[in-house]
User: Which sequence fits this backbone?
Protein backbone atom coordinates (compact mmCIF):
# COMPACT_ATOMS: atom_id res chain seq x y z
CA UNK A 1 0.00 0.00 0.00
CA UNK A 2 1.59 3.32 -0.99
CA UNK A 3 1.57 5.98 1.69
CA UNK A 4 2.75 9.58 1.73
CA UNK A 5 6.42 9.76 2.50
CA UNK A 6 7.57 11.56 5.66
CA UNK A 7 11.29 11.46 4.94
CA UNK A 8 11.21 13.06 1.53
CA UNK A 9 11.54 9.66 -0.19
CA UNK A 10 9.04 9.49 -3.04
CA UNK A 11 6.28 7.00 -2.31
CA UNK A 12 5.72 4.25 -4.89
CA UNK A 13 2.83 5.04 -7.19
CA UNK A 14 -0.43 3.56 -5.97
CA UNK A 15 -1.88 1.44 -8.75
CA UNK A 16 -5.13 2.96 -9.88
CA UNK A 17 -8.21 1.59 -11.57
CA UNK A 18 -8.24 2.35 -15.29
CA UNK A 19 -11.22 3.31 -17.44
CA UNK A 20 -11.50 2.16 -21.04
CA UNK A 21 -12.71 4.58 -23.71
CA UNK A 22 -16.46 4.97 -24.06
CA UNK A 23 -17.89 2.61 -26.63
CA UNK A 24 -15.13 0.02 -26.02
CA UNK A 25 -16.69 -3.36 -26.83
CA UNK A 26 -16.48 -6.15 -24.25
CA UNK A 27 -17.17 -9.62 -25.51
CA UNK A 28 -16.55 -13.33 -25.35
CA UNK A 29 -15.61 -15.64 -28.22
CA UNK A 30 -16.17 -19.23 -29.35
CA UNK A 31 -15.99 -21.24 -32.59
CA UNK A 32 -18.48 -23.61 -34.19
CA UNK A 33 -16.58 -26.91 -34.15
CA UNK A 34 -15.30 -26.29 -30.63
CA UNK A 35 -18.72 -25.89 -29.02
CA UNK A 36 -21.66 -26.90 -31.20
CA UNK A 37 -21.70 -30.71 -31.32
CA UNK A 38 -24.68 -32.02 -33.35
CA UNK A 39 -22.17 -33.01 -35.99
CA UNK A 40 -24.64 -34.94 -38.11
CA UNK A 41 -27.86 -33.03 -37.39
CA UNK A 42 -30.04 -31.00 -39.73
CA UNK A 43 -28.01 -31.69 -42.83
CA UNK A 44 -24.51 -30.89 -41.54
CA UNK A 45 -21.85 -32.95 -43.33
CA UNK A 46 -18.34 -33.81 -42.07
CA UNK A 47 -15.70 -31.12 -42.04
CA UNK A 48 -11.96 -31.73 -42.17
CA UNK A 49 -11.95 -31.70 -38.36
CA UNK A 50 -14.50 -34.54 -38.14
CA UNK A 51 -12.24 -36.57 -40.40
CA UNK A 52 -9.04 -35.58 -38.58
CA UNK A 53 -10.51 -36.50 -35.18
CA UNK A 54 -11.23 -39.96 -36.53
CA UNK A 55 -7.67 -40.46 -37.68
CA UNK A 56 -5.94 -42.49 -34.95
CA UNK A 57 -3.30 -40.63 -32.96
CA UNK A 58 -4.21 -37.14 -34.14
CA UNK A 59 -6.33 -35.77 -31.29
CA UNK A 60 -5.63 -36.42 -27.63
CA UNK A 61 -7.76 -39.21 -26.14
CA UNK A 62 -9.42 -39.69 -29.52
CA UNK A 63 -11.74 -36.77 -28.64
CA UNK A 64 -14.09 -35.42 -31.32
CA UNK A 65 -16.46 -32.48 -31.71
CA UNK A 66 -19.46 -34.81 -32.09
CA UNK A 67 -21.08 -33.49 -28.92
CA UNK A 68 -18.65 -30.80 -27.71
CA UNK A 69 -20.50 -28.51 -25.26
CA UNK A 70 -23.82 -29.32 -26.98
CA UNK A 71 -24.25 -25.63 -27.75
CA UNK A 72 -26.40 -26.58 -30.76
CA UNK A 73 -29.09 -27.51 -28.24
CA UNK A 74 -28.10 -25.26 -25.35
CA UNK A 75 -27.63 -22.00 -27.30
CA UNK A 76 -30.43 -20.25 -25.46
CA UNK A 77 -28.86 -21.06 -22.09
CA UNK A 78 -25.48 -19.89 -23.39
CA UNK A 79 -26.90 -16.57 -24.55
CA UNK A 80 -28.51 -16.20 -21.12
CA UNK A 81 -25.10 -16.80 -19.53
CA UNK A 82 -23.66 -13.97 -21.61
CA UNK A 83 -26.55 -11.70 -20.69
CA UNK A 84 -25.83 -12.47 -17.01
CA UNK A 85 -22.19 -11.58 -17.58
CA UNK A 86 -23.28 -8.29 -19.11
CA UNK A 87 -21.04 -8.54 -22.18
CA UNK A 88 -21.90 -6.34 -25.14
CA UNK A 89 -20.80 -8.65 -27.95
CA UNK A 90 -20.40 -12.30 -28.89
CA UNK A 91 -17.91 -13.54 -31.47
CA UNK A 92 -18.92 -16.93 -32.88
CA UNK A 93 -18.28 -18.74 -36.13
CA UNK A 94 -20.61 -20.20 -38.72
CA UNK A 95 -20.07 -23.83 -39.63
CA UNK A 96 -19.62 -23.94 -43.40
CA UNK A 97 -20.70 -27.65 -43.59
CA UNK A 98 -23.94 -26.73 -41.80
CA UNK A 99 -24.77 -23.89 -44.18
CA UNK A 100 -23.48 -25.41 -47.41
CA UNK A 101 -23.10 -29.12 -46.74
CA UNK A 102 -21.29 -30.04 -49.94
CA UNK A 103 -19.18 -26.89 -49.97
CA UNK A 104 -20.96 -25.60 -53.06
CA UNK A 105 -24.44 -24.97 -54.37
CA UNK A 106 -27.51 -23.75 -52.49
CA UNK A 107 -27.74 -23.08 -48.78
CA UNK A 108 -29.16 -25.56 -46.31
CA UNK A 109 -32.08 -23.73 -44.75
CA UNK A 110 -31.87 -25.64 -41.45
CA UNK A 111 -28.23 -24.68 -41.02
CA UNK A 112 -28.94 -21.01 -41.62
CA UNK A 113 -31.96 -21.14 -39.31
CA UNK A 114 -29.77 -22.16 -36.39
CA UNK A 115 -27.67 -19.01 -36.75
CA UNK A 116 -30.75 -16.88 -37.38
CA UNK A 117 -32.27 -18.08 -34.09
CA UNK A 118 -28.99 -17.52 -32.26
CA UNK A 119 -28.53 -13.98 -33.59
CA UNK A 120 -32.16 -13.07 -32.88
CA UNK A 121 -31.72 -14.18 -29.29
CA UNK A 122 -28.46 -12.23 -28.96
CA UNK A 123 -30.07 -9.07 -30.31
CA UNK A 124 -33.04 -9.57 -28.03
CA UNK A 125 -30.63 -9.59 -25.07
CA UNK A 126 -28.73 -6.53 -26.34
CA UNK A 127 -25.61 -8.51 -27.35
CA UNK A 128 -24.00 -7.60 -30.66
CA UNK A 129 -23.37 -10.65 -32.90
CA UNK A 130 -19.89 -10.78 -34.48
CA UNK A 131 -19.78 -13.59 -37.04
CA UNK A 132 -16.66 -15.31 -38.36
CA UNK A 133 -17.17 -17.18 -41.63
CA UNK A 134 -14.29 -19.61 -41.29
CA UNK A 135 -12.89 -20.96 -38.05
CA UNK A 136 -11.31 -24.04 -39.63
CA UNK A 137 -14.22 -26.38 -40.41
CA UNK A 138 -13.78 -26.80 -44.17
CA UNK A 139 -16.38 -29.13 -45.72
CA UNK A 140 -14.59 -32.46 -46.27
CA UNK A 141 -15.85 -32.54 -49.84
CA UNK A 142 -13.73 -29.45 -50.62
CA UNK A 143 -10.64 -31.01 -49.05
CA UNK A 144 -11.25 -34.10 -51.18
CA UNK A 145 -11.17 -31.78 -54.20
CA UNK A 146 -7.76 -30.42 -53.08
CA UNK A 147 -8.56 -28.11 -50.16
CA UNK A 148 -6.94 -24.71 -49.57
CA UNK A 149 -3.90 -25.41 -51.77
CA UNK A 150 -6.35 -25.16 -54.70
CA UNK A 151 -7.66 -21.91 -56.10
CA UNK A 152 -11.20 -23.28 -56.42
CA UNK A 153 -11.53 -23.40 -52.62
CA UNK A 154 -11.10 -19.60 -52.47
CA UNK A 155 -13.87 -19.24 -55.07
CA UNK A 156 -16.19 -21.61 -53.15
CA UNK A 157 -15.48 -19.61 -49.97
CA UNK A 158 -16.73 -16.41 -51.60
CA UNK A 159 -19.94 -18.17 -52.70
CA UNK A 160 -20.50 -19.39 -49.14
CA UNK A 161 -19.83 -15.87 -47.82
CA UNK A 162 -22.52 -14.56 -50.18
CA UNK A 163 -25.08 -17.10 -48.91
CA UNK A 164 -24.32 -16.20 -45.28
CA UNK A 165 -24.56 -12.45 -45.94
CA UNK A 166 -27.84 -12.82 -47.83
CA UNK A 167 -29.40 -14.78 -44.98
CA UNK A 168 -27.97 -12.97 -41.94
CA UNK A 169 -26.85 -9.58 -43.22
CA UNK A 170 -30.02 -7.89 -42.02
CA UNK A 171 -29.08 -8.64 -38.39
CA UNK A 172 -25.35 -9.36 -38.20
CA UNK A 173 -23.53 -6.06 -38.60
CA UNK A 174 -19.96 -7.20 -37.92
CA UNK A 175 -18.28 -9.87 -40.05
CA UNK A 176 -14.90 -11.57 -40.07
CA UNK A 177 -13.76 -13.60 -43.06
CA UNK A 178 -11.07 -15.93 -41.68
CA UNK A 179 -9.84 -16.83 -38.22
CA UNK A 180 -6.05 -17.26 -38.05
CA UNK A 181 -5.24 -18.30 -41.61
CA UNK A 182 -1.68 -19.03 -40.39
CA UNK A 183 -3.04 -22.06 -38.52
CA UNK A 184 -5.15 -23.21 -41.49
CA UNK A 185 -2.20 -23.01 -43.88
CA UNK A 186 0.87 -23.90 -41.84
CA UNK A 187 -0.54 -26.21 -39.15
CA UNK A 188 -3.08 -27.76 -41.53
CA UNK A 189 -0.79 -28.34 -44.53
CA UNK A 190 2.75 -27.78 -43.13
CA UNK A 191 3.29 -29.39 -39.73
CA UNK A 192 0.05 -31.37 -39.96
CA UNK A 193 -0.94 -30.89 -36.31
CA UNK A 194 -4.27 -29.45 -37.45
CA UNK A 195 -6.78 -30.79 -39.96
CA UNK A 196 -6.42 -31.91 -42.67
CA UNK A 197 -3.02 -33.02 -41.36
CA UNK A 198 -0.97 -32.75 -44.53
CA UNK A 199 2.79 -32.10 -44.34
CA UNK A 200 3.98 -30.45 -47.52
CA UNK A 201 5.75 -27.08 -47.65
CA UNK A 202 4.51 -26.07 -51.08
CA UNK A 203 0.93 -26.98 -50.21
CA UNK A 204 1.23 -24.81 -47.10
CA UNK A 205 2.34 -21.80 -49.16
CA UNK A 206 -0.34 -22.41 -51.77
CA UNK A 207 -2.88 -22.67 -48.95
CA UNK A 208 -1.67 -19.35 -47.49
CA UNK A 209 -2.19 -17.65 -50.85
CA UNK A 210 -5.60 -19.17 -51.48
CA UNK A 211 -6.73 -18.25 -47.95
CA UNK A 212 -5.60 -14.69 -48.71
CA UNK A 213 -7.46 -14.80 -52.01
CA UNK A 214 -10.54 -16.32 -50.35
CA UNK A 215 -10.46 -13.46 -47.85
CA UNK A 216 -10.36 -10.83 -50.63
CA UNK A 217 -13.12 -12.49 -52.65
CA UNK A 218 -15.25 -12.93 -49.54
CA UNK A 219 -14.85 -9.26 -48.55
CA UNK A 220 -16.12 -8.32 -52.02
CA UNK A 221 -19.06 -10.75 -51.72
CA UNK A 222 -19.95 -9.39 -48.28
CA UNK A 223 -19.69 -5.73 -49.32
CA UNK A 224 -21.95 -6.41 -52.33
CA UNK A 225 -24.67 -7.73 -50.05
CA UNK A 226 -24.34 -6.00 -46.68
CA UNK A 227 -25.59 -2.53 -45.79
CA UNK A 228 -22.85 0.09 -46.09
CA UNK A 229 -22.84 0.44 -42.31
CA UNK A 230 -21.68 -3.17 -41.80
CA UNK A 231 -18.11 -3.75 -40.58
CA UNK A 232 -15.91 -6.30 -42.37
CA UNK A 233 -12.63 -7.63 -40.98
CA UNK A 234 -10.19 -10.52 -40.77
CA UNK A 235 -8.65 -12.05 -37.64
CA UNK A 236 -4.93 -12.89 -37.61
CA UNK A 237 -2.90 -14.56 -34.87
CA UNK A 238 -0.06 -12.12 -35.23
CA UNK A 239 3.08 -13.46 -33.61
CA UNK A 240 5.11 -11.00 -31.60
CA UNK A 241 8.54 -12.35 -32.57
CA UNK A 242 11.59 -11.37 -30.54
CA UNK A 243 15.22 -12.35 -31.21
CA UNK A 244 16.99 -14.00 -28.27
CA UNK A 245 19.99 -11.69 -28.67
CA UNK A 246 20.67 -8.73 -30.90
CA UNK A 247 23.21 -10.67 -32.96
CA UNK A 248 22.58 -10.27 -36.70
CA UNK A 249 21.88 -14.03 -36.95
CA UNK A 250 19.18 -13.97 -34.28
CA UNK A 251 17.67 -10.78 -35.68
CA UNK A 252 17.51 -12.45 -39.08
CA UNK A 253 15.86 -15.55 -37.58
CA UNK A 254 13.20 -13.25 -36.09
CA UNK A 255 12.74 -11.54 -39.47
CA UNK A 256 12.23 -14.88 -41.23
CA UNK A 257 9.68 -16.13 -38.68
CA UNK A 258 7.88 -12.77 -38.74
CA UNK A 259 7.71 -13.09 -42.54
CA UNK A 260 6.06 -16.49 -42.68
CA UNK A 261 3.97 -15.97 -39.53
CA UNK A 262 2.68 -12.44 -40.08
CA UNK A 263 3.75 -10.58 -43.18
CA UNK A 264 2.70 -13.31 -45.63
CA UNK A 265 -0.83 -12.27 -44.62
CA UNK A 266 -0.55 -8.59 -43.70
CA UNK A 267 1.52 -7.90 -46.83
CA UNK A 268 -1.14 -8.69 -49.43
CA UNK A 269 -4.13 -7.90 -47.20
CA UNK A 270 -3.02 -4.53 -45.84
CA UNK A 271 -0.23 -3.35 -48.15
CA UNK A 272 -1.17 -4.92 -51.48
CA UNK A 273 2.04 -6.93 -52.00
CA UNK A 274 3.76 -10.10 -50.84
CA UNK A 275 6.94 -9.15 -48.94
CA UNK A 276 10.02 -9.54 -51.16
CA UNK A 277 12.00 -11.26 -48.39
CA UNK A 278 9.32 -13.94 -47.91
CA UNK A 279 9.33 -14.67 -51.66
CA UNK A 280 13.13 -14.93 -51.51
CA UNK A 281 13.19 -17.12 -48.40
CA UNK A 282 10.84 -19.58 -50.11
CA UNK A 283 12.24 -19.34 -53.65
CA UNK A 284 13.92 -22.76 -53.36
CA UNK A 285 10.47 -24.27 -52.77
CA UNK A 286 8.26 -22.47 -55.29
CA UNK A 287 8.23 -19.65 -57.82
CA UNK A 288 4.79 -18.56 -56.48
CA UNK A 289 3.31 -18.89 -59.98
CA UNK A 290 0.04 -19.83 -58.29
CA UNK A 291 -0.34 -16.08 -57.63
CA UNK A 292 -2.16 -14.89 -60.75
CA UNK A 293 -2.27 -11.37 -62.16
CA UNK A 294 -4.79 -9.34 -60.21
CA UNK A 295 -4.86 -11.65 -57.17
CA UNK A 296 -3.02 -9.31 -54.88
CA UNK A 297 -5.32 -6.42 -55.82
CA UNK A 298 -8.28 -8.67 -54.98
CA UNK A 299 -6.76 -9.55 -51.61
CA UNK A 300 -6.03 -5.90 -50.79
CA UNK A 301 -9.53 -4.84 -49.73
CA UNK A 302 -10.32 -1.96 -47.39
CA UNK A 303 -11.21 -3.33 -43.94
CA UNK A 304 -13.09 -1.71 -41.10
CA UNK A 305 -10.81 -3.18 -38.45
CA UNK A 306 -8.15 -5.83 -37.98
CA UNK A 307 -8.88 -8.63 -35.51
CA UNK A 308 -5.87 -9.58 -33.37
CA UNK A 309 -5.58 -12.86 -31.48
CA UNK A 310 -2.78 -12.94 -28.91
CA UNK A 311 -1.80 -15.50 -26.28
CA UNK A 312 1.99 -15.50 -25.90
CA UNK A 313 5.10 -14.03 -27.54
CA UNK A 314 7.60 -15.92 -29.72
CA UNK A 315 11.31 -15.95 -28.85
CA UNK A 316 13.78 -17.23 -31.46
CA UNK A 317 17.44 -17.60 -32.21
CA UNK A 318 19.46 -18.80 -35.18
CA UNK A 319 20.89 -22.29 -34.97
CA UNK A 320 23.47 -24.06 -37.11
CA UNK A 321 21.90 -27.44 -36.59
CA UNK A 322 19.36 -29.06 -38.83
CA UNK A 323 16.00 -27.40 -39.07
CA UNK A 324 14.75 -26.89 -35.56
CA UNK A 325 11.22 -25.72 -35.10
CA UNK A 326 10.87 -26.30 -31.39
CA UNK A 327 7.44 -25.64 -30.02
CA UNK A 328 5.05 -23.46 -31.91
CA UNK A 329 2.60 -23.99 -29.07
CA UNK A 330 0.15 -26.01 -31.12
CA UNK A 331 1.59 -29.50 -30.85
CA UNK A 332 4.70 -31.40 -31.82
CA UNK A 333 5.41 -32.64 -35.32
CA UNK A 334 8.43 -33.83 -37.26
CA UNK A 335 7.51 -31.29 -39.89
CA UNK A 336 8.07 -27.60 -39.32
CA UNK A 337 5.18 -25.18 -39.78
CA UNK A 338 7.75 -22.43 -40.48
CA UNK A 339 8.00 -22.96 -44.20
CA UNK A 340 11.14 -21.40 -45.65
CA UNK A 341 12.55 -20.49 -42.23
CA UNK A 342 14.88 -23.37 -41.36
CA UNK A 343 17.57 -23.33 -38.68
CA UNK A 344 15.59 -21.36 -36.16
CA UNK A 345 15.40 -22.42 -32.51
CA UNK A 346 12.37 -21.53 -30.38
CA UNK A 347 12.72 -20.61 -26.71
CA UNK A 348 10.29 -20.21 -23.88
CA UNK A 349 10.02 -16.60 -22.72
CA UNK A 350 11.01 -16.64 -19.01
CA UNK A 351 8.24 -16.43 -16.43
CA UNK A 352 5.10 -18.37 -15.64
CA UNK A 353 3.26 -20.55 -18.14
CA UNK A 354 -0.32 -21.64 -18.70
CA UNK A 355 -1.57 -25.22 -18.93
CA UNK A 356 -0.70 -25.07 -22.63
CA UNK A 357 2.94 -24.42 -21.67
CA UNK A 358 2.61 -20.94 -23.19
CA UNK A 359 4.55 -18.12 -21.53
CA UNK A 360 2.48 -15.46 -19.78
CA UNK A 361 3.83 -12.14 -21.06
CA UNK A 362 1.42 -9.22 -21.46
CA UNK A 363 4.25 -6.98 -22.69
CA UNK A 364 4.14 -8.98 -25.92
CA UNK A 365 0.56 -7.86 -26.50
CA UNK A 366 1.37 -4.22 -25.76
CA UNK A 367 4.40 -4.27 -28.06
CA UNK A 368 2.45 -6.02 -30.81
CA UNK A 369 -0.28 -3.37 -30.67
CA UNK A 370 2.32 -0.58 -30.76
CA UNK A 371 3.99 -2.19 -33.75
CA UNK A 372 0.66 -2.53 -35.58
CA UNK A 373 -0.03 1.15 -35.07
CA UNK A 374 3.34 2.05 -36.47
CA UNK A 375 3.07 -0.37 -39.44
CA UNK A 376 -0.60 0.24 -40.27
CA UNK A 377 -1.62 3.54 -38.64
CA UNK A 378 -4.96 3.75 -40.44
CA UNK A 379 -6.63 0.52 -39.34
CA UNK A 380 -8.52 0.23 -36.04
CA UNK A 381 -7.78 -2.92 -34.03
CA UNK A 382 -9.97 -5.33 -32.09
CA UNK A 383 -8.62 -8.00 -29.75
CA UNK A 384 -10.71 -10.89 -31.05
CA UNK A 385 -9.11 -13.53 -28.78
CA UNK A 386 -7.08 -13.50 -25.59
CA UNK A 387 -7.24 -15.88 -22.65
CA UNK A 388 -5.57 -18.82 -20.97
CA UNK A 389 -5.99 -22.51 -20.14
CA UNK A 390 -5.47 -23.67 -16.58
CA UNK A 391 -6.23 -26.96 -14.82
CA UNK A 392 -9.58 -25.87 -13.42
CA UNK A 393 -11.70 -28.09 -11.20
CA UNK A 394 -14.94 -27.84 -9.28
CA UNK A 395 -14.31 -27.60 -5.53
CA UNK A 396 -16.52 -29.29 -2.89
CA UNK A 397 -18.59 -26.08 -2.66
CA UNK A 398 -19.38 -26.43 -6.34
CA UNK A 399 -17.24 -23.43 -7.34
CA UNK A 400 -14.36 -23.04 -9.75
CA UNK A 401 -11.68 -20.68 -8.46
CA UNK A 402 -9.21 -19.63 -11.14
CA UNK A 403 -7.01 -16.82 -9.78
CA UNK A 404 -4.34 -17.57 -12.42
CA UNK A 405 -6.80 -16.79 -15.21
CA UNK A 406 -7.88 -13.57 -13.46
CA UNK A 407 -4.22 -12.55 -13.17
CA UNK A 408 -3.67 -13.38 -16.85
CA UNK A 409 -6.68 -11.33 -17.94
CA UNK A 410 -5.78 -8.45 -15.67
CA UNK A 411 -2.23 -8.36 -17.03
CA UNK A 412 -3.32 -8.47 -20.66
CA UNK A 413 -6.08 -5.90 -20.21
CA UNK A 414 -3.50 -3.64 -18.56
CA UNK A 415 -1.36 -4.08 -21.66
CA UNK A 416 -4.31 -3.17 -23.91
CA UNK A 417 -4.97 -0.11 -21.77
CA UNK A 418 -1.32 0.94 -21.98
CA UNK A 419 -1.44 0.65 -25.76
CA UNK A 420 -4.61 2.74 -25.90
CA UNK A 421 -2.95 5.40 -23.72
CA UNK A 422 -0.06 5.37 -26.16
CA UNK A 423 -2.48 6.21 -28.96
CA UNK A 424 -3.34 2.78 -30.42
CA UNK A 425 -6.93 2.61 -31.69
CA UNK A 426 -8.20 -0.57 -29.99
CA UNK A 427 -11.99 -0.84 -30.24
CA UNK A 428 -12.76 -3.92 -28.15
CA UNK A 429 -11.69 -7.12 -26.41
CA UNK A 430 -13.10 -10.64 -26.70
CA UNK A 431 -12.18 -13.14 -24.02
CA UNK A 432 -11.34 -16.61 -25.32
CA UNK A 433 -13.47 -18.35 -24.40
CA UNK A 434 -17.02 -18.11 -23.14
CA UNK A 435 -17.00 -21.86 -22.44
CA UNK A 436 -14.50 -24.64 -21.92
CA UNK A 437 -14.44 -26.41 -25.27
CA UNK A 438 -12.75 -28.72 -27.77
CA UNK A 439 -9.18 -27.42 -27.96
CA UNK A 440 -8.25 -28.91 -31.36
CA UNK A 441 -5.37 -31.41 -31.12
CA UNK A 442 -5.61 -31.29 -27.31
CA UNK A 443 -9.24 -32.39 -27.32
CA UNK A 444 -11.07 -31.57 -24.08
CA UNK A 445 -7.90 -31.68 -21.97
CA UNK A 446 -7.40 -27.89 -21.97
CA UNK A 447 -9.93 -25.55 -20.40
CA UNK A 448 -9.98 -21.98 -21.74
CA UNK A 449 -13.49 -21.04 -20.59
CA UNK A 450 -14.67 -18.31 -18.26
CA UNK A 451 -17.49 -20.79 -17.76
CA UNK A 452 -16.65 -24.36 -16.73
CA UNK A 453 -18.35 -27.16 -18.66
CA UNK A 454 -18.95 -30.51 -17.00
CA UNK A 455 -18.79 -32.59 -20.18
CA UNK A 456 -20.71 -35.68 -19.01
CA UNK A 457 -23.77 -33.60 -18.06
CA UNK A 458 -23.21 -30.42 -20.09
CA UNK A 459 -23.68 -28.38 -16.91
CA UNK A 460 -22.21 -24.84 -17.02
CA UNK A 461 -20.57 -23.26 -13.94
CA UNK A 462 -19.30 -19.68 -14.26
CA UNK A 463 -15.76 -19.60 -12.85
CA UNK A 464 -14.48 -16.85 -10.54
CA UNK A 465 -12.93 -15.27 -13.65
CA UNK A 466 -16.39 -15.02 -15.23
CA UNK A 467 -17.63 -12.99 -12.26
CA UNK A 468 -14.46 -10.88 -12.37
CA UNK A 469 -14.74 -10.26 -16.13
CA UNK A 470 -18.40 -9.43 -15.75
CA UNK A 471 -17.56 -6.55 -13.41
CA UNK A 472 -14.88 -5.29 -15.77
CA UNK A 473 -17.23 -5.46 -18.75
CA UNK A 474 -20.16 -3.83 -16.96
CA UNK A 475 -18.09 -0.93 -15.62
CA UNK A 476 -15.58 -0.75 -18.49
CA UNK A 477 -13.02 -0.24 -15.76
CA UNK A 478 -10.03 -2.40 -14.97
CA UNK A 479 -9.40 -2.65 -11.23
CA UNK A 480 -6.00 -1.61 -9.91
CA UNK A 481 -4.91 -5.16 -9.18
CA UNK A 482 -6.08 -8.68 -9.89
CA UNK A 483 -6.44 -9.31 -6.15
CA UNK A 484 -9.58 -10.26 -4.22
CA UNK A 485 -10.23 -6.68 -3.01
CA UNK A 486 -11.90 -5.96 -6.34
C1 LIG B 1 -6.61 -19.94 -31.22
C2 LIG B 1 -7.87 -20.42 -31.89
C3 LIG B 1 -8.99 -20.78 -30.94
C4 LIG B 1 -8.48 -21.44 -29.68
C5 LIG B 1 -7.35 -20.64 -29.09
C6 LIG B 1 -6.82 -21.21 -27.79
O1 LIG B 1 -5.51 -20.22 -32.02
O2 LIG B 1 -8.36 -19.45 -32.78
O3 LIG B 1 -9.90 -21.57 -31.63
O4 LIG B 1 -8.13 -22.73 -29.94
O5 LIG B 1 -6.29 -20.55 -30.00
Assistant:
Amino acid sequence: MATASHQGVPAPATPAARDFPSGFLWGTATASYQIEGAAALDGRTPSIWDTYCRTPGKVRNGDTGDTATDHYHRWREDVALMADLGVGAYRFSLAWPRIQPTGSGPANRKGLDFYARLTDELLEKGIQPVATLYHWDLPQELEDAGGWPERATAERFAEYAALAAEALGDRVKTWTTLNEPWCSAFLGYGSGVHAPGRTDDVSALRAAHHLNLGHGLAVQALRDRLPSTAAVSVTLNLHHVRPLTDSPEDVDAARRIDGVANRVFTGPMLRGAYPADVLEDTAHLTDWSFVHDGDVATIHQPLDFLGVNYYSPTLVSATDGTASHGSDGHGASEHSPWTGADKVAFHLTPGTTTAMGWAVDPSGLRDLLLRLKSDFPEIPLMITENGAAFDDYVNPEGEVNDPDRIAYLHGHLSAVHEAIEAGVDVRGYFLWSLLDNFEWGYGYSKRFGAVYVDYPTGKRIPKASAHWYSRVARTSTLPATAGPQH
Summary: Residues 243 and 274 are 23 Å apart (CA to CA).
